[in-house]
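Progress narrative, work stream C.
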Amino acid sequence: MGVFGDINVEADTNIGNGQIDLSKFQFTGPTGTYTGSITVYLSAVPSAPNNKVVVGIHNVGDGSKVANSAEKTDTAIGWNTLELIDRFSLINNNWYWLVWHGPDGSNGRMAAGAIVGQHGWKTRTYDGTLPDQITPEGTEQTQCSIYCTYVGGAYLNFRTS
């Protein structure tokens, strides 16, 4: 099992405004096919029935979707973990966007001082899905509290959930 992304609850609030939120991280694990989940820290969520979120992984190079979750409909303030639907492939040393999207009123946590272009966003009305391709409309020097946990190789056959 491995993890990539930001496992810390960062100090600053990331106002989601219903935008797709992207954080760029380099995958340093072995190239392979994996199963896994994405965990995102939300510091504000809309009240039901709008307390929803969807997450995924996109390739930074061409914006193509690598993996995504189903919509989670009972999000809460704090860490929210969503299983990725299918097996997915990651390549050692490639850069990936870890992505989350929630309705207006969903806010995450972020840290200032990351490398330039570490955090991006894309305007899109929330519909419980992620697009097949994403190119950020803008980037800034922050990163969000979001990470991917992955299992693969010899361990893939022993995963029970």
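Work stream C, second folded protein:
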Amino acid sequence: MLTPRNYHTWKADIMVFLTCENALEIVLGNEDPPLANASFAMRESYKKQLGLATGMVYSSVEPTIRAIINKLPDSNPAQIWIALREKFNTATSRSGRMAIRKRFQFTAMKEGTSVQAYITRLTTIQQELSGTPDEMADQSLISHLLQNLSKNYKTLVDIITHRPTEGETVDSITTELIEYETSNAYSLHQLGPTQIPLVPLSTDMP
């Protein structure tokens, strides 16, 4: 559901749904309506897809944003798509990108938060800057991620930061952190919270 604060996440999600319904190209403005002399079946098929695309976009935004759509002079889904992008894509301006960067810098893992939730917040912000002059490299994200984990991850962070970065990706680091979190949670459940956290089950260290 699109809100004033989740444009990029919403965009990624709705594009998947539109693709599944063969309606994405209409929304992106890449598919023109059939010519007047096109067959009845072709014109009806396009009309159906146009209505489906409009309905999917309209129903995927919160009521206050629907009010904005209702004021548009054209209900064509491609025009709705452009209007929503111009209204809610804050990364289009330099000041907007600076605000996104600042939000990224202040994002840290809080006690009691899962590592997956923390990483998702960071990757969502990275996605907001994708394709802009301030696009964020994966290594910048990984560095911030490791530096701002909760203290429970210190043992693993020390190991990761002292080994070669060759072949390292956001996905590989995510998998490693989740496995570490799971193993520690199991240890605490079995042995009690006073026990020393487990070290990683396997590392690249000798």
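Confidence is low (pLDDT under 50) at residues 201-206. No further action is required on this item.
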